């Protein structure tokens, strides 16, 4: 069996030299895997599994036991096959963060978790593993994340050597910026370890604004002349921290955020709002189109942030469409990034945005 020292650690990844066109598939949303048009993607992430909070082994629930085989089979047998990754974690708040904080705190518990992820991935036929950890809360947890990635990678190398199978991919969904500048104590991701041990990372370049704020704002501003809350800043921070651009797969949204305006006659970006709008403060892209059509909404493009917003009846929604997605994908290409991914499958309408992104990347 090869040791990690026998392996070239400088991976020229991502492994698909043409680039990553990824998307997360929320298994719990009711959008069937058989409905995924794989011609627009290279990698699909199954979301999500969680470790058991006591044993730290990956918990494959009865629901997942029923869903995963169909997911794998559907995507493996298409005319345009894609690689599949098993994503663990998700945006479940403090409870999920605590599980990962506890399991990453000691080598013994990290090993239990790592071994179980490999076993599950091989049992079901996944091509890789993805950690969606939102978010390490302090420097200590960042250090433990670095150790987890190193030991995980080494275990994958050993397992591939022993089994004779291709090494499982190792990726991670991360904050849009390499540094936390907007909430909590200042902290930074372990960029050196990420660059060395992950095949790539997925900066989540969205959720910049929402109804947690009393003013309207773009959910995924490409640029922001007034603050660092933008994709251009976030991606730049990762590169400045030392992560290879080719290991950055930029996150794109397939949804928008909605507000109720304080004054319907004042309706630009940054105007006062008094709560969430329709959809509980969030619209899938197809719902945005329905809202605009049914309400004869006024639709505006904001060139400073490269985002769209529309308003009608005192409600406001900020979102991306095919035009802004084209800008964002071209930005990713111009920076030499490894690709892009979407959150989440089932939110597009007739694959309008997915198709635009794929065509923009290839042209």
UniProtKB/TrEMBL annotation:
InterPro entries documented for this protein: Chitinase_II/V-like_cat, Chitinase_insertion_sf, GH, Glyco_hydro18_cat, Glyco_hydro_18_chit_AS, Glycosyl_Hydrlase_18
**Which ranges carry the GH18 domain?**
19-363
Q: Does the keyword Calcium apply?
A: no
What molecular functions are annotated in GO for this chain?
chitin binding; chitinase activity
Question: Per the record, what is one GO cellular component?
Answer: extracellular region
Q: Which domain of life is it from?
A: Eukaryota
Per UniProt, the keywords (alphabetical) are: Glycoprotein, Glycosidase, Hydrolase, Signal
**PROSITE patterns listed in its UniProt record:** GH18_1, GH18_2
Keyword Metal-binding attached:
no
Gene Ontology biological-process entries: carbohydrate metabolic process; chitin catabolic process
Recorded hits in Pfam families, A to Z, give:
Glyco_hydro_18
Tell me the protein family, please: Belongs to the glycosyl hydrolase 18 family. Chitinase class V subfamily.
Q: What is this protein called?
A: Acidic mammalian chitinase-like
